[in-house]
Give the backbone structure.
Amino acid sequence: MYFDTHVHFDDFITDGTLEQLLERAEISDVCKMVAVGGSPEANGTAQMLAKAFPNRIYAAAGYDRHLAGTECDIPALQELAARQDTVAIGETGLDYFYEPDAARQQQYLFSQCLEVAVNVSKPVIIHTREADDDTLAILSDFSRQWKGDAAGIGVIHCFTRSRKMAGLLLDLGFYISISGIVTFSSAESLRRVIEFIPADRLLIETDSPYLAPVPHRGKRCEPAFVVDTAKRLAELYDCTVELLAETTAENAARLFGLE
């Protein structure tokens, strides 16, 4: 069984291909998925899917960095976060690659989402790009405030950073999730970092509809493709793909508080 911990379903619903996508996922033994939020619309989609596909799709709710500087309804997020069918807060985080001038607004929104996570003791799904120092500073403060299960503090999704960054995040208790980028020919430095990540802190994801792994480059990514990411990771960990799938699914269940 594979657990895709990061899926943006919105486009698949818009173009009417959700049913086919879920059929292909089932054929590929991708049995569980997290529908990621990040805006009021995406949060609503995640909640709808969690209701429609219980024990198969789980909802996350949050406000992502592209909303920085706008009026975000934090009480509404708090209400969503408290729902039983919401398993995580996110995605949220910092991205200075495209909008470095919005750094302070991003930090403020990020901190607000983390406060919600503390209040409900649910894990956070973190995006970080070109913002290592500020991400670590904010997450260090968050970890000191965290009152929940130490194994459920959160995950850094689509990790592509350095070995040093990975080590510091692991020290804070975070899981690290790997996307199809690990299969890219240009990702040798990432593959060297992954070998340093303990297997019991590893998650897998597609970040659908983005970042399709080899051999699907150029196609729209979908949950069934997480199998190809798992195969490449199994090579790096020198284990069977079945063991890699089982380990990462157990890790995801532990993080998100699932049976």
The beta strands are 2-7, 30-35, 57-61, 86-95, 124-129, 154-156, 175-178, 202-204. The chain has one domain: 2-256. DSSP finds ten helices and eight strands in the chain. The chain has a mean pLDDT of 97.
